[in-house]
Amino acid sequence: GLVVQKQEIKKEINKETKQVQPTKKAEKIAKTPQTTKPQAKKPAQKVQKQAQKTPTQQEKIAQERKRAISKNQKNYYEQKKNLDKYLALNKKDSATFIAIANTYRSMSEYTNSILNYKEAIRLDPVNSDIYFNMALSYLELNDLTNAKINLEKSIGLDSSNSKAVNMLSFVEQKIITKTINSAYEKFDNKDYISAIQILDNGIKNYPTNSQLYYYRALASDGMKRNAAQIIDLQKVLELNPGYYMAYYQLGKAYEKINDEKSALVAYEKFLSTEPDEKDLINEVQNKVINLGNKYY
Asked: Which residues are CB-contacts of 148 (< 8 A; sequence separation ≥ 6)?
């Protein structure tokens, strides 16, 4: 009877190892290439922050368990039955730890899942999928930094892992958005120097992201640094010629330094991109008419 029981548990481990179950949202993201649409209106919505004491690992586990049971008690205890079988095994190989980690993830105990993915990696350090799955657990905890690190490791081990590639794109955009939100919080308080410092760090990590240059240009405008603003807006358009709000801001920046010919060109390019902003279209059309009467 004991031999048969162990064989059944082994079959379940193999099943759990193969059937990784990210959330529906994460699974959809992993399969879908990500695209970034230029921001047309105001900077990203600021995020309210509250000072909180960082919980210990055991406190995190206890909090996650409480939330998971409250969310779906029936599913939690059904999964726990499988988990107890795996945990009872004396000898645990990489596949066993993956099964344990996957089960913890399905139970929404993400900290415990990460601990067991790490054990699986210790035994099988070149398995790309383990890093990918661990990144999903970090993402559920909103730990973008560690999610990114593990996705990069996953891709480093298997560059054809398309799920990891698409997920990395998604995580990096979340990091960029978080950076913009942090900068806007400073911008909104007229702390332009801090806003620029935050965006400087973002650009250091993501030097080809047009959004970061755009928002740094807005911060420079707040400090009346017209030359710096123009340079950043030109960089935005070099990286993303369809970023129509950059043409609009560039036209305004040129007007501030009395370069009306350059402003006219920028406004004309703004209109040529067929923007969605009706109020801005009317404003820019009037500017083009008035400036055009001077120079055409």
From this structure: 135, 168, 171, 172, 175
